[in-house]
Write a structure and sequence with these properties.
The structure holds two protein chains of two kinds. Chain A contains eight helices and eleven strands. In chain A, a hairpin with a 7-residue loop joins β1 and β2. In chain A, α4 crosses α7 and α5 runs parallel beside α7. By secondary structure, chain B is an alpha+beta fold. In chain B, the strands form three sheets. In chain B, strands 1, 2, 3, 4, 5 and 6 form a six-stranded mixed beta sheet that branches. In chain B, strands 10-9-11-12 form a four-stranded antiparallel beta sheet. Classes of the chains: A alpha+beta, B alpha+beta.
Chain lengths: ~375, ~280
């Protein structure tokens, strides 16, 4: 096989210094292609994957339309310069196969019955390849689907396990893929743990296969953690935009507390990253109902008043809120599964809070005194 | 332009599913029964190796051709094994002429992976002139009559054909020219046998060796290929459904057992052929 060096050294570290169950560095962004309905850029190790989603839209050619459900049509292509030897732009058989299995890996996560006779086109372009491109592509595609607002049962995360020098490892890099003993790409709907992609090539015992799938599923959970944060960042950004536009409407004739060194009448709040998510979605809820109530000229409701002042007086810090020191910075370092497991447990409570708020009817005043109190307290601290 | 043969009437679908609730199939089998398998080996005179497999009514024909060619850049002293499959339009009203569609490409690549990763043939021993000339073994599979489970039938045919292939002799003349002698070939050395088992998931029922009608209403598919030593060399989940980890663990165990059984059947057929 022409191996020049051991793939796992005496300290149990791999060629790129990672441990057996360590993921390569992961960076994700959504909304990178403005023209598309949804889009994402994923950097996973040396892989760079761009994905754009268009749809639901009319099917062309028409005869491919499905009478009872949405057609999911992914197209996976390698850019000519993404690999060592220039690849011709015409899709090869591998790209056709991968396009099919990527579509099939995503479909279980989509409410396909809601859009009969329509199609969601998912265009995946691998602009830099470094082993495990199909997994990174599925990760990107699921983000792009969420970015496009397509009704989803869950987000699909994907990572490959593998076998290197007799050991089952997580997230093969290019060298390990070529010179190792096997490759096991897996994709999973993060919340339900349904496996939507599972391939294998190489030489594994049946126990190693089961171990590999288990390890890959853990890796998928870690990937999902980052997908989740990436999507939340998008909505934080959106809520900031809404804040700014509502501030310009409200700034005339309102008396505000002025206790900070910031300019104008704005109060600056120091917000914990963990509270940011709660604030963001609550703020949107409040703004929506405030706009409705304001038109009715109903300023007698004390809760309304509180929330109105919240909206007017709160300004999120414009500088990036630094994450707590025990939470790893995902964008540049590789992921240690142990840390991620802790983080996931912490985040679950916050996620429950966020979803509870969203589930309530819109327009109805959200009776959540605990949260209003927190907000008011923080305000007074300034 | 809906092809009516791919749409299964609701009544038929309900029928298949209600039979499955009683653990029965359309042809009387149980969920984990294979149909009867028979082989016709060495019937194609022009091919270096050939085998026809009947898996129930599904019929596939595999032919092996050995050609001399230039090696790949990164393996200059190794031969090459290429497995391909053609879904001939004669086999089903749903197969069309022309470039292969994604389903056909997937089928070909999964079978190729199974044979290749199992290392049925030792490609490192197929070098004729290092860096210049190596043996290229082409295994081409034609589907003749499609009645479900093309994956397993094709792997069986490819295996039987390879195991009975005669690699032509090589004579290197004084001027360095290479003369191929197909009349006096020697057995192509086979390192191990491999076979696959393909499962379909119909709602929550898991069946093996699917019929065409069962494939139309399946929501997910799982193929596992195993070597005679019991190692897993290839797997592929297909279609737009999903599996739980528990289901996959089960499929690995059952699939391994059934594939090892299929390997026994191929070996028997090959040995029978070699005796005569």
């Amino acid at each position: 096989m022409g191996k020049n060096r051991p793939l796992i050294d005496v300290n149990g570290l791999r060629v790129d210094g990672r441990k057996i169950d360590e993921l390569r560095p992961l960076e994700m962004k959504v909304g990178v292609i403005k023209r598309a309905n949804g889009s994402a850029l994923v950097k996973h190790g040396g892989n760079q994957i761009l994905c754009a989603v268009y749809g639901p839209r009319e099917v062309h050619p028409k005869h491919l339309a499905l009478s009872n459900k949405l057609l999911i049509r992914a197209e996976y292509r390698l850019a000519t310069f993404s690999v060592n030897d220039r690849k011709s732009p015409a899709p090869r058989r591998r790209e056709h196969e991968l396009s099919k299995i990527i579509s099939e890996a995503l479909e279980p996560s989509i409410f396909v019955e809601r859009f009969p006779r329509a199609v969601v086109d998912i265009y995946i372009n691998v602009i830099d390849a470094d082993g495990g491109t199909r997994c990174a592509s599925i990760t990107a595609a699921s983000l792009a689907l969420a970015d496009a607002g397509i009704p989803l049962k869950g987000i699909v995360a994907s990572v490959a396990a593998g076998k290197v020098e007799g050991k089952v490892v997580l997230d093969l890099c290019d060298v390990e893929d070529k010179d190792g003993d096997g490759d096991l790409p897996v994709a999973m709907v993060a919340t339900t743990k349904e496996i939507t992609l599972c391939q294998l090539d190489g030489n594994f015992t049946s126990d190693e296969v089961k171990e590999g799938i288990e390890l890959a599923m853990k890796g998928c959970e870690a990937v999902y953690e980052i997908q989740h944060r990436t999507l939340l960042e998008k909505f934080e950004h959106v809520s900031k935009e809404i804040q700014k536009s509502s501030l310009t409407d409200e700034s005339k004739g309102e008396e505000k507390e002025d206790s900070s060194e910031e300019e104008d009448d704005d109060v600056v709040m120091e917000i914990d990253e963990s509270e940011l998510e709660e604030m963001g979605s609550k703020a949107i809820e409040d703004i929506v109902s405030e706009v409705n109530n304001e038109e009715e000229d109903d300023k007698n409701d004390p809760e309304d008043e509180d929330n109105l002042s919240d909206i007017v007086e709160v300004e999120f810090e414009t500088e990036k809120v630094e994450p707590e020191s025990d939470k790893p910075e995902y964008s540049t370092k590789s992921i240690d599964l142990d840390i991620v497991e802790e983080v996931i447990e912490e985040d679950i409570d916050e996620i429950n809070v966020v979803t509870t708020i969203i589930d309530e009817d819109e327009g109805e005043k959200k009776d959540n005194p605990q949260e209003s109190e927190n907000t008011t307290e923080n305000l007074e601290e300034e | 332009m809906a092809d009516s043969s791919t749409i299964l009437g609701l009544i038929e679908k309900q029928h298949i599913l209600s039979l499955l609730k009683e653990k029965k199939r359309l042809d009387g089998r149980s969920e984990l029964d294979f149909r009867p398998i028979s082989f016709e080996i060495g019937t194609i005179k022009k091919a270096e190796g050939s085998a026809i497999v009947h898996l129930g009514d599904t019929t596939v024909l595999a032919g092996v051709k050995c050609e001399l060619g230039t090696p790949f850049k990164d393996t200059p002293n190794s031969g090459v094994l290429i497995v391909n499959i053609e879904r001939s339009p004669m086999a089903s009203p749903t197969f069309r002429s022309g470039p292969p569609r994604a389903e056909a490409i997937e089928l070909a690549r999964v079978i190729d992976r199974g044979i290749r990763e199992a290392k049925v043939i030792d490609v490192d021993n197929l070098c004729v002139v290092p860096g210049e000339k190596v043996w290229i073994i082409f295994v081409d599979i034609y589907v003749i009559d499609a009645h479900g489970n093309l994956f397993d039938a094709s792997t069986l045919a490819a295996m039987a054909a390879l195991a009975t292939t005669k690699l032509p002799s090589i004579v290197i003349g004084e001027n360095g020219e290479i003369v191929i002698d197909k009349e006096n070939g020697k057995d192509l050395p086979v390192q191990r046998y491999t076979s696959s088992t393909t499962f379909y998931k119909l709602q929550d029922h898991l069946i093996v060796d699917s019929l065409t009608k069962e494939e139309y209403i399946g929501n997910a598919r799982f193929t596992i290929a195993v070597t005679e030593e019991g190692n897993v060399c290839a797997m592929q989940k297909g279609l737009s459904g999903s599996f739980s980890k528990k289901e996959i663990d089960n499929l690995i165990d059952v699939g391994k057992e059934m594939s090892l059984n299929n390997i026994k059947l191929v070996k028997e057929a090959v040995n029978e052929y070699k005796k005569n």
